[in-house]
Specification:
Elements lengths: L38 H12 L13 H13 L10 H12 L18 H10 L8 H11 L3 H12 L5 H6 L12 H4 L6 H17 L11 H8 L5 H15 L26 E10 L9 E2 L4 H7 L12 H14 L11 H13 L10 H8 L6 E2 L4 E11 L5 E4 L10 E3 L15 H12 L10 E3 L1 E2 L1
Antiparallel strand pairs: 1-4, 2-3, 4-5, 4-8, 6-7
Length: 464
């Protein structure tokens, strides 16, 4: 998962064997442009020349002829014609020079019909995976959110060691969310069910990585996702290799998959709403939030994700909170920041400039005090710590660098309020006997709570 911005890790030890990676270079080559020199430029020149473009001598020097060839290639492949060779141009070059590749599959298209419930379960069964039986869940996720089911299966295999990792077995965490190197078992996020985890992954990936203009979008491919999703340069090729295994087991091959870029029409997903898991009234007790005293609540999940302060915003943070700070700095001090939700050196420098102007400590960190004074100035209603609550539903959202959020919808006029994982919405002592099995899975999920605040799980609760 995303080591840079989100809360997951493919660095959890993986005990699996995969086929040799499909040839790929797009996620490892640097972004180059006019004036660049080196081996990446040489690779670029060779590829362009093989496609019939005139680049002059193959000398590793990005000069005028190479620039002209790059722009011609970009125009021919309907890319931004800027002469800069970044992930999108590298991806198109790979497709043009090396043929079809799973790392360049447009993941917004459904997998071919030979990838279905039966073939997925058969593949998982043959490999001794506890995920056998989840084939329909992967297909449902593809149908609902428009994300390739082969990709979803292969990503789950990579991140969960075929469903055998401890966080997969104990926490239904199939995609490695929150599994930091330092303490993966405790830090890893928890999901109410495997099927929910699959649906959530499809929703998250489609809305934040595959849709043009979304916060983490580069291209709708494994290569594009690799830029913001994982620091491991082999992440895309590892999943691509697993996709090839699954496709082959079903009698297919990469040529059946839509490559990027394409002129084919991309179907819109049936839903953009995050999935919901019904708990049916588990009981709990709210505890103090470290910033708000009580538990803050908002009129909707999206409002809560946008307006709530989850933790200090600093270099490496991401999400809507960072975007709000960037917009504010542009308005107040003319910072000229790109509003991309990525807290990098430029944003940190602008924050220091703002802090200096207002006589604040110049540390480049946007604190809770600054958030409530300058960004979200309205009063935030809270539910007092120690309140008895009932949990109706669990849903998820993103809290930037503070990661996953689990919530349940409130009712009866209370609005909706998230409770931090560190707030320990406990004890859970109420479930109806005729719903025991369903509710118990939710209770078990809620009981196994990490105390690491970065996991930032939240629940929407209803006062009893």
């Amino acid at each position: 998962m995303n080591f840079k911005k989100l809360l997951a890790a493919s660095s959890v030890p993986m005990l699996l064997t995969v086929a040799a990676p499909v040839a790929v270079y797009a996620q490892t080559e640097p972004t180059i442009s006019y004036g660049s020199v080196g081996s990446a430029v040489t690779t670029l020149q060779k590829d362009l020349k093989s496609l019939g473009y005139s680049v002059g001598p193959i000398d590793g020097d990005f000069g005028p002829k190479t620039l002209s060839a790059v722009k011609s290639f970009q125009q021919a492949h309907k890319l931004t014609v800027d002469g800069v060779v970044g992930p999108q141009t590298w991806s198109a070059l790979q497709s043009a020079t090396h043929g079809a590749s799973f790392t360049n599959v447009d993941l917004r298209y459904s997998a071919p019909s030979d990838i279905n419930t039966k073939t997925i379960n058969s593949f998982l069964s043959k490999n001794g995976s506890p995920m056998n039986g989840l084939g329909q869940s992967f297909m449902n996720a593809q149908s609902t959110y428009g994300v390739d089911a082969n990709y979803l299966v292969s990503h789950a295999i990579l991140e969960s060691a075929w469903g055998k990792s401890q966080i997969a077995l104990a926490k239904n965490n199939l995609f490695g969310y929150g599994a930091y190197d330092s303490n993966p078992g405790d830090d890893a996020g928890m999901f109410p069910s495997d099927s929910y985890a699959i649906m959530f992954q499809a929703w998250e990936v489609r809305n934040n990585y595959l849709n043009p203009g979304s916060s983490e979008y580069v291209t709708p491919t494994l290569t594009g996702m690799n830029v913001h999703y994982a620091t491991d340069p082999n992440w895309a090729s590892s999943i691509g290799s697993l996709m090839n295994e699954l496709a082959s087991s079903a009698g297919g091959n990469v040529n059946q998959y839509q490559q990027y870029p394409s002129t084919a029409i991309v179907s819109q997903p049936k839903s953009n709403a995050e999935p919901v898991y019904y708990v049916n009234g588990a009981a709990g007790t709210t505890q103090q939030n470290p910033y708000y005293g009580g538990v803050p609540y908002f009129s909707s999940l999206s409002d809560g994700m946008s307006d709530m302060f989850f933790g200090p915003l600093q270099n490496g943070s991401s999400g809507s909170g960072v975007s709000k700070v960037q917009r504010y700095l542009n308005q107040q001090i003319g910072a000229g920041l790109t509003v991309d939700g990525q807290y990098g050196p430029a944003t940190a420098a602008a924050v220091k400039k703002f802090e200096a102007k207002h006589g604040l400590k110049q540390d480049g960190v946007w604190s809770f005090a600054m958030w409530t004074k300058y960004i979200y100035t309205a009063s935030t209603p809270t539910v007092p710590a120690g309140s008895s609550v009932e949990i109706d539903q669990i849903a998820q959202g993103m809290a930037g660098a503070y990661g996953r959020t689990l919530v349940s919808y409130c009712g009866r006029g209370l609005g909706r309020f998230p409770i931090r994982e560190t707030d320990k919405c406990l004890p859970f002592d109420g479930c109806e006997s005729n719903q025991h099995k369903h509710v118990h899975s939710g209770l078990q999920f809620q009981r196994q709570i990490s105390t690491n605040r970065d996991v930032a799980l939240r629940r929407f609760c209803r006062r009893k």
